[in-house]
Please model this.
Amino acid sequence: MEGDYLRRAVAEFVGAFALIFIGVGSLIYGNIVGVAFAHGLVIAVMVSAVGHISGGHFNPAVTLGFLVTRRMSATLAGIYWVAQFGGAILAALVLKWVLPGAAYDGVNGGAPSLQNGLNGGEGVVVEAILTFFLVWVIFASAADPRGTFKQIAGLAIGFTIALDILMGGGLTGAIMNPARSVGPELVANDWSDFWVYLVGPFCGAVIAAVVYEVLYLRPPRPVPVGPPETGLEEPRPGDAALE
Model:
């Protein structure tokens, strides 16, 4: 995933813009089911559309997962973050401009906040777990060469976002994406519990990426059958799964 930075950055910018524009827009008139499917569908469509160009991250936490597992360079990750946060901020600005004031204020511009009595620590745990699921599915369906990227990766990722929102929408908003939180927070100038939506997604993404990478993408070598001097490299019975 090196080189061709401009094309990749534009794809990430457009994807992040679409997520915030459609996702936050759905908050105004939709119930939790509608909101969940709006977020899930826009990601499914965008991943399917430009996944072959940029990988379809649209999420700084996802990009961090790819960075810590050395699947992209720090330079490219930095470019992705600028594009993702830039797309999110522009989408939030456009929404503030085009939406009726009462509708915009009614959802606080899409800026997330903890609900139903959750405290900050609990919010971090919820966001971390939901993001873990998301990044786990991304690695399994898109990063793993045995996965289903060309076939159903976009759908799998989109459905994961939808089911995460169905569970966590009434608790933290199920943001799972620092760009999704920072863009609306900046434009609405509401930083309530902003750290929850940075720490939770980043931690969940790193854990999922590292665990999947270690367990499934970099498996340990099978234990040789014989002593070292034999040069025998055949796995023991039962180790075939490691091949």
Remarks:
- The chain has a mean pLDDT of 90.
- The chain has one domain: 5-217.
- The radius of gyration is 20 Å.
- The chain is about 65% helix and 0% strand.
